[in-house]
Amino acid sequence: MDGRSRRRPFGVSLVLMRPDRALQRLGGVARTETLLRLTSRARLRVALARGLVVRDVRGSYSLPGVDEALRAASRLSGVLVEGSAAQYHGWELKHRPTVPCIAVPRNRKVDPVRRGGVRVRYLDLDPADIGGRVAGPGATVMHCAARLPFDEALSVADSALRHRDVTRGGLLRRAEAMPDRYRARCLRVAVHADARADNPFESVLRAIALDVPGLRVEPQVWVDDIGRPDLLDRGRRLVVEAESFEFHGRRRALTRDCERYNAFTLAGWVVVRFSWEHVMFEPAYVHDVLAAVVDARPLRRALLPEPAARPSVTEPAGPGDRTSERRHGSQEPGVPGPMTDKKLHKGDKVEWNSHGSTAEGTVEKQITSETEAGGRKVKASKDEPQYLVKSDKSGGEAVHKPGALRKK
Q1: Which of 135, 259, 281, 289 has its CA 20 to 30 A from that of 304?
Q2: Would you say 80 and 102 are in contact if contact means Cβ atoms under 8 Å apart?
Q3: Do residues 354 and 281 make contact, with C-beta atoms less than 8 angstroms apart?
Q4: Contact by Cβ (8 Å): 26, 199
Q5: What confidence category does residue 8 fall into, taking pLDDT thresholds of 50, 70 and 90?
Q6: Residues of the chain above pLDDT 70, percent
Q7: Among 53-62, 65-74, 180-189, 273-282, which stretch is predicted with the lowest mean pLDDT?
Q8: Mean pLDDT, rounded, for 105-132
C-alpha cells in the first residue's frame, strides 16, 4: 500500500533486526531511511565496524561481496555477470550471490585451482557490453533472464528499470536478439519487467501471480481514492498485497491500511494478503490461494499448518507482540525420526519438511542462548537448543528446532 515513507515514531518500541538481515529482506541494497525502519543507527554502526554491511555512497548501504567479486574477476581476467554484475550495479535482488559469477572467453582453459570459490561461465561477450570487469546493465539483465529462475530474473529486471539503468524497449530488443534456446525466457522477463515494483518482495509475488492461469496483475496502480495496492487485477477486481512489518512499524500506518482494506472490500474488491515468508518460502501456497480465487473455489489448506512445513524465519513482531515461536509437528509416516536425542554439529547435512516436500541443507551452528538469527529473535537455551540451517536450494538461512530436522 502507499504511505510507506513514514518514519518510526518516537516512543514506540520495535523488535529490531540485525542490519545485515534487514538488508537481505530489502534485496541487498537500501537507502538509510529504508534500512532504519528495520534496525537502529547504533546497530548499523556496529555492523559497519564488523564488516557485515558496507556504505556504498552517502545514504546507501549494501551487503559485502562486490569488492571480493571484482578481485576474483581480475584474478581470472574475466568479467562479472549474472547476479554478481547485478549486485555491482547496486540493484536489489531476491538472493545475494553466494559466490562470484565470472565469464571468460569460450576458448580459454581455467585451472581448477583458480576456479575455486567462483562460478565460471564460458561466454564470448560483445566488448560494447563490458565496462571494466563488469557486464553492462542490459547484458546483465539478459544473462539473468537466460539462466536464473523467472522470479529471480524478474526481480533483477524490475530493479534495473527502477534504477533507470535500462529501458523496457532496450530489454525487448536485446531479448529478440538472444540465441534461440534463451529467447523465450528472455522475452518473458522483458515483457513483464516493470519499474513500478517497489522491491524484490513484490517482484517475486508478481512472478508467482503471472504463473496463475487467468490472472492479469499489474503493480502499484491507484484505485479511485482508496489507495495503491501492490498488485491489481482490474477485470477480476482482485487486490493482492505483499505485507511486511517494515511498512507497519507505526500504529497509524497499520490503522490506515486496515481502513484501506475495508474500503476495497466495501467497493466490491477481493483482497488477499501474503507475508514475506509466504512469498519467499511458500510459493506453492501463494499460487494455490490465487488460483482458488480465480476459479472461485474453496481451498482446503488456506491456513498453512503450524509444523515445520513452514520456515522458522519470521519477521520481527510488532509493538507489544509476544507471539510464541512456531511449534513443529509430529513425524510423518515412513520418514526417519527427528533429531531429538542427538546433537547436530556444524556441517551436518539435514533435511526437513517444507510444504509437502523435503528441503535439504547444512547446519551452520547450534544456538543455545537468546539471540537473533535467520532474520528473527530466537529464544534458545542449552537445554532447548535450536539450529541455524542453510538451504541447499535457495541459499537462505532459517532456524529450526531439533525435532524438525533429520540427519541425512
Answers
A1: 259
A2: yes
A3: yes
A4: yes
A5: very low
A6: 80
A7: 53-62
A8: 86
Q: Which residue has the cell 482490474?
A: 234
Following DSSP, what letter does each residue of 116-132 receive, concatenated? TTSEEEE----GGGEET
Annotated domain spans of the chain = 66-192, 196-304, 308-316+327-408
State the amino acid at position 224 in one-letter form.
D
Unique residue bearing C-alpha cell 541425512: 408
Q: How far apart, in Å, are the Cα atoms of 257 and each of 2, 5, 240, 275?
A: 9, 14, 13, 15
Q: Which of left, alpha, beta for 218 (phi over 0: left; psi -120 to 50: alpha)?
A: beta
Residue 131, beta-bridge partner list: 134
Residue 302, pLDDT score: 59
Pairing of strands 218-219, 231-233: antiparallel
The CATH classification number of 196-304 equals 3.40.960.10
Rounded to whole angstroms, the Cα distance separating 24 from 395 reads 12
To 10 degrees, the CA torsion angle through 369, 372, 378, 383? -20
Dihedral class, residue 59 (left if φ above 0, else alpha if ψ from -120 to 50, else beta) = left
What is the maximal distance between C-alpha atoms in the chain?
65
The DSSP call for residue 309 is: T
**Beta carbons of 202 and 230 less than 8 angstroms apart:** yes
Residues 31, 44 contacting (CB under 8 angstroms):
no
Helices 137-147 & 180-192, crossing angle to 10 degrees?
A: 110
Please give the Cα distance from 155 to 297 (Å, whole number): 30
Is 308-316+327-408 in CATH node 2.40.160?
Answer: no
Residue 169, phi then psi, degrees to nearest 5: -60, -40
Three-state SS letters, 142-160: HHHHHHCCHHHHHHHHHHH
Which of 163-177, 185-199, 319-333 has the weakest average pLDDT? Answer: 319-333
Q: Residue 5's pLDDT band (boundaries 50, 70, 90)?
A: very low
- What would the grid cell of residue 378 be? 530466537
pLDDT at residue 13 is higher than 50: no
Find out whether 119 and 140 touch, Cβ atoms under 8 Å: no
Three cell numbers, residue 331: 513425524
- Which of 3-7, 186-190, 364-368, 386-390 is predicted most confidently? 186-190
Q: pTM for the full model?
A: 0.65
**pLDDT at residue number 160:** 95
Percent of the chain with pLDDT over 90: 30
Place of cell 534485496: 27
